Amino acid sequence: MIDWTQVLDPLGTAGRVPALLDQVEAEGDAGAWDDLWDALCLEGETVVPASFAALPRLVAIGSTTPQALSLAGSIMRGALQDHGADDLLQSCTSVVPRLQSLLDRRLKSRPVGYLHAFRDLLAVTGQYHWSSVLGDFSDDFYSMCCPHCDVEVTVAIGDHGRYSAIRDWHAGDVERRDLQPVSPEDLIGTGRWMHDTAVRDDQDWLANGLTYLFGKAECPRCASTFGIAAEYTAANLPPSGE
Asked: Which residues, other chains included, contact 105 with Cβ-Cβ below 8 Å and sequence gap of 6+?
């Protein structure tokens, strides 16, 4: 049994959270949902100890309430934050498989805001990096260094083009090189799972963009090629020891 007076939310102790959970489950009141988001996932991204204390209840409600499922997924996207609640996060790991199943079922329904639910599912499966950075491929830019000559390369995947370039402060993206998309049959691991899920759910925009994200780029300076996803992931890993 959780002593909510000993659990913190953004305003202090989270004694109001159980009543809010009761209210949204019973009535689905929009104002109560707003208050619950503020208490558990401030501005849609900042989590606190109360977030993980409430997670099992949200998963239980989430089987019939999309708002609860969305809030639970957003909380999981913040699992790596410095929230000071590792013990509470560990205590609710038993509900993670259920949350994963519910999110996957929601994706199959092709909801409005598919990408948000997709990123939630990525977090629940431990893919926090892609959950954080994956865009909608309409105007996406990824910055990384060429692993061969160490020059900074900008990779664009969107309506404006799909290319690697050197970004110039005045001239914009120069020395552009077309990206080399990967064949879906050659995708492996997380990339394959992401692509297969998008195809299953008829999200062609996402499936196509992923073939470029997990494809190859040519360095405009040294003309070597490298894997975009691998280099971008490496560039965004925390320093050793953190």
From this structure: none
Tokens 């209210």, residue located? 23
Tens-binned pLDDT, residue by residue, of the chain (242 aa): 677 777 866 666 677 888 899 999 988 788 999 999 998 998 888 899 999 999 999 999 999 999 999 999 999 999 988 888 888 889 889 999 999 999 999 999 999 999 999 999 999 999 999 999 999 999 999 999 999 999 999 999 999 899 999 999 888 899 999 999 999 999 999 999 999 999 999 999 999 999 999 999 999 999 999 999 999 998 886 544 33
Sequence-ordered list of residues with C-beta below 8 angstroms from that of 238, at least 6 positions apart, any chain = none
Buried b (16+ CB within 10 A) or exposed e, 193-225: ebbebbeebebeebbbbbbbbbbbbbbbeeeeb
| Residue 181 per-residue DSSP state | P
Q: Which residues pair with 142 in a beta bridge?
A: 155
DSSP 8-state class, residue 126: T
d(CA 69, CA 65): 7
Which residues, including other chains, have CB under 8 Å from residue 178's CB and lie 6 or more apart?
162, 163, 218
Longest dimension (CA), the chain: 62
Question: What does the radius of gyration of the chain's CA atoms come to, in whole angstroms?
Answer: 20
- Among candidates 85, 4, 98, 90, which has minimal Cα distance to 47? 85
